[in-house]
Amino acid sequence: IVLVDDSEHPIERPKKSSDSTLGQEEEATLKSLLAVDRKSGRILCAAVGKGRRHDFHLFKRSAMRFHPRTLTLADSGFQGLQKLHANTALPTKHSKKAPLGQLDKDLNHVISSERVLVENIIRRIKVFRVMGERYRNRRKRFGLRLHLIAGMVNAEL
């Protein structure tokens, strides 16, 4: 079972606003995408993109692919992942006309309780100040630093 999630990291506002990376709350951000093995808790793959990119778009551009028999758990930001990977479990969304039934609520609860591990791994990465606070270094090296910290987190396990 592979758990997929992403996180945003604030950066210094770019000097040129032509390619700004505005994310949540109108803040310049970079986004990191992680794939974590549920059994061992190790980070399998990491990718980096601009903060304004959608989660699923970042997944498609990262070229992360899983074996067809591997179950993938993701949040609702990865709608459409079933088209690329058939063995995917996503939480069901409600609408005004079709509220969720108890079975769907229970399934969403099971998926979210399984995905807690990837949230904890993201927290471990953000314990390092270079990833948790505003990133002030070169943006080209953000991916390198993410991979180095992911390696340290894996070695710690």
Percent strand: 15-25%
Rg (CA only)? 16 Å
User: Could you tell me how far the N terminus lies from the C terminus, measured between alpha carbons in angstroms?
Assistant: 18 Å
Please tell me what the overall shape is.
globular
How many beta-strand runs? 5
The biggest sheet, with number of strands, parallel, antiparallel or mixed sense and barrel status, is: 5 strands, mixed
What is the succession of H and E elements?
Answer: EEEHEHEHHHH
Order of strands side by side in the largest beta sheet? 3-2-1-4-5
Low-confidence runs (pLDDT<50, min 5 residues)?
A: none
Helix count from the secondary structure assignment: 6
Oligomer designation = single chain
What does this molecule look like?
The structure is a single chain. The chain has a 5-stranded mixed sheet with strand order 3-2-1-4-5, sandwiched between helices. The chain is built from 6 helices and 5 strands. The two termini are 18 Å apart. Helix content is 36%, strand content 19%. Strand 4, helix 2 and strand 5 (88-89) form a beta-alpha-beta unit. By secondary structure, the chain is of the alpha/beta class. It is globular. The model has no long low-confidence stretch (mean pLDDT 86).
